[in-house]
Specification:
Keywords: ATP-binding, Coiled coil, Microtubule, Motor protein, Nucleotide-binding. The chain is of the alpha+beta class and 306 residues long. It is 30% helix and 26% strand. A hairpin with a 2-residue loop joins strand 12 and strand 13. Helix 1 packs across helix 3 and helix 3 runs antiparallel to helix 4. It binds adenosine-5'-diphosphate and magnesium ion. The site of magnesium ion has 4 residues, from helix 2.
Length: 306
């Protein structure tokens, strides 16, 4: 799909609590993934822009958090710093490793902490070379519930509400929520402090509302303004990056005696709503990819990037 859209797959280790009989047989060769269905023994092959094998830490081919970041992160940052808007999503079933990959535990950080650290290092480096280079980074963080309520994760006291205004800045070509808290940040440590607090708030809010936190989408939105002077002319760039940990796609089944309880019905509705929103996202991405194969966009004009 070219430079504008890249799709990778990561296979996490088989978890101790998963039954051995359901252990899928997955093999990665270059960018191809071979999947053998344990029930039918049929083999399915898919190709990706990236394929990361994180099944077995003892093997040379094991894709650590660093390996994943080094493949995906620097390219997105290049685009972001050149003034393109970009987005990174993790998509998959609940338990497939989305949060591990995008956020990761403190002692084994995922893409977001690495990318943010890299971003500020690059900005500082440029500032050292060009004394009149100015930049501003802002962060906001948002949780989207399956009933379309939104919660501002940088405001501890905010409740998930329905009537937040989702707006499009047509001139700058990006989408944002008007009421969202936006914090200006001076370094990676400060930014990650906000993101960590937001993630903690996310868990508390989900638990209070009795919603499984894997049923919500979380978006960290970074905006970057850069001002520099190039051969006597002032250049101003503005770009937005969305880092999205999507709700888990669900296998929807209505079976067993529990399925008629109000609780089970609510869970079913939630799962259907999550799947619907993920299908819509896939359609949007497909449209963008189709448009991207006919057109190229210029910096600041939206679209581009990973
Ligand atoms: P999701 O966000 O998709 O629901 P998680 O990221 O929470 O899934 O991962 C589910 C479990 O699998 C967690 O216990 C996580 O630590 C573990 N896990 C996921 N990916 C990896 C990986 N690459 N290496 C080791 N453990 C992983
Ligand atoms: Mg998760």
């Amino acid at each position: 799909m070219g430079e504008r859209l890249k799709v990778g797959i990561r296979i996490r280790p088989h978890l101790a609590e998963q039954s051995e009989s359901h252990k899928p047989q997955l093999h990665i060769l270059n960018k191809d993934v071979y999947f053998k269905d344990p029930a039918t023994q049929n083999v399915d092959t898919r190709s990706f822009d990236y394929a990361f094998d994180s099944q077995d830490e003892t093997q040379d081919k094991y894709a650590s958090q660093a390996v994943v970041y080094d493949a995906v992160g620097p390219g997105i940052l290049d685009n972001f710093m050149q003034g393109f808007h970009c987005s990174l999503f993790t998509y998959g079933q609940t338990g497939s490793g989305k949060t591990h990959t995008i956020t990761g535990p403190q002692d084994n950080p995922g893409i977001v902490p690495r990318l943010v650290t890299d971003l500020f290092e690059r900005l500082e480096k440029r500032k050292q070379k060009e004394s009149d280079f100015k930049w501003e980074v802002q962060v906001s963080m948002l949780e989207v519930y399956s009933n379309e309520r939104l919660k501002d994760l940088l405001d501890k006291n905010s409740q998930p509400i329905r009537n937040m205004r989702i707006q499009q800045d047509k001139e700058l070509g990006y989408t944002y929520v008007k009421e969202m808290t936006r914090k200006s940040v001076k370094d990676a440590h400060q930014l990650l402090g906000y993101v960590n607090a937001g993630n903690a708030d996310r868990l508390v809010a989900s638990t209070k509302l009795n919603v499984n936190s894997s049923r919500t989408h979380t978006i960290v939105q970074l905006t970057l303004s850069q001002e520099s002077t190039l051969v006597g002319r002032k250049q101003i760039l503005f770009s937005v990056m969305n880092l999205v940990d999507l709700a888990g796609s669900e296998r929807v089944r209505r079976t067993g005696s529990l399925s008629n309880t109000p609780e089970a019905n609510l869970r079913l509705q939630e799962a259907v709503a999550v799947n619907q929103s993920l299908s819509n996202l896939v359609l949007c991405i497909q449209r963008l990819a189709d448009a991207g194969s006919h057109k190229t966009s210029s910096p600041g004009g939206g679209g581009g990037g990973g």
